[in-house]
Amino acid sequence: MTDPDRPQPAPYVLDSAARADLEFDRLRTIEQVYDPGTEEILTRVKPAPGWSCLEVGAGAGSIARLLASLAGETGRVVATDTDPRFLRNIAHPGVEVIEHDITAGPLPPGSWDLIHARSVLEHLPDPESVLARLIPSLAPHGQLFAEAIDVSRETLAIAAEHAPDRRAATAFLEFATAVHRLMTLAGAHPELGSTLPVLLAAQGLEGITHQRRHPLVSGGERGFYALSLARLAPSFQDHGLLDTADDRLSSLFDDPSMVFPALPIGAAHGHTPAVGRRQRRT
Ligand SMILES: C[S@@+](CC[C@H](N)C(=O)[O-])C[C@H]1O[C@@H](n2cnc3c(N)ncnc32)[C@H](O)[C@@H]1O
Q1: With a 6 A CB cut-off, is 31 part of the ligand 1 pocket?
Q2: Element (DSSP H or E) covering residue 209
């Protein structure tokens, strides 16, 4: 039974009711857009053979697969998601898939060398408490690598400058501003990507790095923005945020000759103290 005194999680803005094929394609566009930056940061984190890795909210599973290939046969990779539909047939024997809500119940047991979460924490009502749950399950010198969108006004202005033309910049700003508003209304955290380093430091992590990125994406009917707009249109409509009856935005997003900045993402990474120092702190 629901406890009326307990704050209920905000509905995940992109709930799981979408048609499976469209949702799978949408998750794949997220991977195509953001994987290169994630992979670049992972080359510095250097997951090694034998590592235990937890991939939270694994989506369509590309990063879980990558971690499994780096951790090798002696390693362990657990991929969690509240909606593991697209992980069931994950093409890697080294990935253990678990249906799991990161905000509730016990964490998958483990002492993790690496925990990674991308585009998940910002959709949760209390990302700070999720980080506080995750970090104690890291091994000594375990790495926490979190990525979250950052559609703050400042970041959007910087990203818009990288749009190749004015129409692309305007469409990008219009969509991203509506996403900011929608997430705020849902009790989510549209600027989390910029505050992650502070949250990681507050949890006692060391060696913190932070990077913002807004890769460019092409338009197209099955592209990043067309699928995101299709997915969010009903919610935008409910809240009067974008005139979805006006197909100006969707024709721009459907146009393969257009190029837009993707929604900016902030990535932060840090590690727990090494074993001796961690013991002295406790
Ligand atoms: C925007 S997608 C990102 C997927 C993947 N991390 C990526 O970046 O390619 C967010 C994912 O988080 C999952 N998710 C949402 N709330 C969650 C929760 N409370 N616990 C675990 N996974 C969650 C969703 O089902 C979805 O697969």
Answers
A1: yes
A2: strand 206-213
